[in-house]
Automatic annotation (TrEMBL):
One of its GO terms (biological process) is phosphate ion transmembrane transport. This is Phosphate transport system permease protein PstA. Residues 193-270 form a coiled coil. The lineage of its organism: Bacteria, Pseudomonadati, Planctomycetota, Planctomycetia, Kolteriales. It comes from Kolteria novifilia. Signal peptide: none annotated. GO terms for molecular function: phosphate transmembrane transporter activity. The gene is pstA_1. It is found in: Cell membrane. SUPFAM superfamilies: MetI-like. Pfam families: BPD_transp_1.
Length: 584
């Protein structure tokens, strides 16, 4: 009897045969076997995820710990010299135990090979990192004899990138000695320093507000006088009245400035009564008025919770203060306001114009040759370098439209320009031109995927073309428009070069009370986080001081961009849900 190979005769047998064939193609851990492209594409995706995750992780760690207090170490050298300061960097790669021993304990130089070269920040009196008193020293590994931790070593920032390291030895109120032990001096310093610095800030705020009011008053009277002189033939008496008003305004302004000087003198005398004596490692003694101290810290006395509080306070100061004595001592509040303002102006301008241009190309342009040429032109505009858009914005807005507006509406202020210079409005317009091709292309692609049956159904119900666009096509295209807005915000956040030509500046000056107002005036220059990152990276010599600020500023910019994108994503998801409900 001849045997024949059995074949599946039922649906169950066929299913088991398919499962067995699929199992034969499955390799280790459920990954497909003998499928090289699966492994290749999966590896590429893993590389992308690891690269992006690693970049964000490094930036997050370095940014969050930018203001973490560093311990102060005391180093004794083999030649008898001594240093007190913060360890900034290790030139060599010491062992983890050697670095830990340097920070938390004392150790001898019996094994100098384990210590490694280091970059140390010590006391300095010169704000310039290129001078001989820059405060940055490099110590060879074999020259270090021992290192200890002074529990009451303090760091004193005097502004202008001047930092002192020493031990507090006395605290005076006027000429009366209040405390002569570090354990008693430092609590007094923290309390009194907070009081006198607040008095100084209040006085500075009052000064800035008074000066701003005086400038506005005198500028207004000068404009009135210029307008009266322009109409002098028609009304000669108006010129005399305007001159009298200007003279009276100057007289009142002088009286107000005299009262301001008296109040400032009283505040200065009140804040100068507290002084602290700090002694350095070389025997140098500094007699410091508390009001002149920008910041003081005793990191060796701080535990983990105290370090967290100190770091949070520095973050708050960094985010909520403005111009300081230098870029290193300045906060980024004006830059945050300027970044958000220019981004909002760009979004308000580019989205309506881009959407209308896309609908015109898709719905109203019937000539295929014209449509093809316009699309090629728009896509080519997306590839033009951003600096070219900056030059175009400078030429079109600052040098052409701005002077025309000044001549038409602000003739009284000439020759001082109002809109005939870089400012917030022209920066937003320039970024709108830069991101316009992105919004047009995204919107046109979103309109193209709207089903033709939906259009025909709308026309069959008697709707006109405009009603179909407004009631049918636009709701379908809203998620695509949101995607274009996301891409526009992302590109605008990275475009720093054009802003340098149309109004972005390194630093703006003003009190904390009027910084927000000045940053939101359309004709005023502004700060931008991207430009601030550039200045911290390339325009300062003291990169040891600016590097933590660079990481922190980049982190803030990243958080702002992600937050704006999340808002746009939430709106896009909401529109998609509404669209799905309408389809049901």
């Amino acid at each position: 009897m001849t045997s024949h190979q059995e074949t599946p005769t039922s649906a169950g047998d066929e299913e088991r045969a398919c499962v067995s064939r699929d199992a034969a193609r499955v390799g280790i851990l459920g990954m497909p076997a003998a499928e090289p492209m699966h492994w290749l594409t999966g590896g590429a995706l893993a590389m992308v995820v690891l690269s992006v995750g690693g970049l964000l992780g490094l930036l997050l760690v370095h940014g969050l710990f930018a203001f973490w207090p560093k311990p102060i170490v005391r180093l004794s050298m083999t030649d008898g010299r001594a240093y007190l300061g913060e360890v900034l960097s290790w030139n060599a790669s010491p062992t983890a135990s050697a670095r830990r021993d340097l920070i938390v304990a004392s150790r001898s130089a019996s094994d100098p090979e384990t210590i490694g070269d280091m970059i140390l920040r010590v006391s300095n009196r010169s704000p310039s990192p290129s001078s001989s008193d820059s405060g940055i020293v490099r110590l060879p590994r074999r020259a270090i004899a021992s290192q200890t931790i002074d529990p009451w070593a303090v760091a004193i920032d005097l502004g202008g990138n001047v930092r002192l390291f020493g031990t507090p030895t006395a605290f005076y109120e006027q000429s009366t000695l209040i405390a002569d032990e570090p354990a008693r001096i430092w609590p007094l310093f923290e309390t009194r320093h907070r009081e006198v610095r607040q008095q100084r800030r209040d006085a500075q705020r009052e000064k800035d507000n008074v000066l701003a009011d005086v400038d506005r008053l005198l500028a207004s009277k000068r404009r009135e006088l210029a307008a009266a002189r322009a109409r002098s033939q028609a009304s000669p008496q108006a010129v005399d009245d305007a001159e009298e008003a200007l003279a009276y305004a100057r007289s009142e302004s002088d009286k107000e400035l005299d009262r301001l000087r008296e109040r400032l003198a009283q505040v200065e005398a009140s804040t100068q009564r507290y002084r602290m004596i700090v002694k350095g490692t070389d025997g140098t003694t500094w007699n410091l008025a508390l009001v002149d101290i920008v910041r003081g810290s005793a990191p060796n006395q701080a535990g983990f919770l105290s370090a967290v509080v100190t770091s949070c306070e520095r973050w708050k100061e960094f985010l909520t203060t403005g111009a300081g004595d230098s870029v290193q001592q300045s906060g980024i509040y004006p830059a945050i306001v300027g970044t958000l303002a220019v981004t909002m102006i760009m979004t308000v301008l580019v989205v309506p114009v881009g959407v209308m241009a896309a609908f015109f190309l898709r719905e109203y342009t019937r000539n295929p040759t014209l449509r093809f040429c316009l699309r090629i032109t728009i896509r080519n505009l997306a590839g033009i370098p951003s600096i070219v858009f900056g030059v175009f914005g400078l030429l079109l807005f600052c040098d052409t439209i701005g002077p025309a507006l000044d001549a038409l509406w602000f003739a009284d202020s000439l020759p001082w320009p109002t809109f005939g210079k870089g400012g917030l409005l022209w920066a937003g317009c320039t970024l709108a031109l830069l991101t316009l091709p992105v919004v047009i292309v995204s919107t046109e692609d979103a309109v193209a995927v709207v089903p033709s049956s939906v259009r025909q159904a709308s026309y069959a119900c008697g709707a006109s073309q405009w009603q179909t666009i407004q009631r049918v096509i636009l709701p379908y295209a809203l998620p695509g428009i949101a995607t274009g807005t996301l891409l526009a915000i992302a590109r605008a956040a990275a475009a720093v070069a054009p802003l340098m030509l149309v109004g972005a500046v390194t630093m703006t000056h003003g009190s904390e009370g009027n910084e927000t107002f000045s940053q939101l005036q359309l004709d005023q220059e502004f700060m931008h986080l991207g430009l601030h990152v550039y200045n911290l990276a390339f325009e300062t010599d003291d990169h040891w001081t600016t590097r933590p600020l660079l990481y922190a500023t980049a982190l803030v910019l990243l958080v702002i961009v992600i937050s704006l994108n999340m808002v746009a994503i939430a709106l896009r998801s909401r529109w998609r849900q509404r669209l799905a409900v309408r389809e049901l």
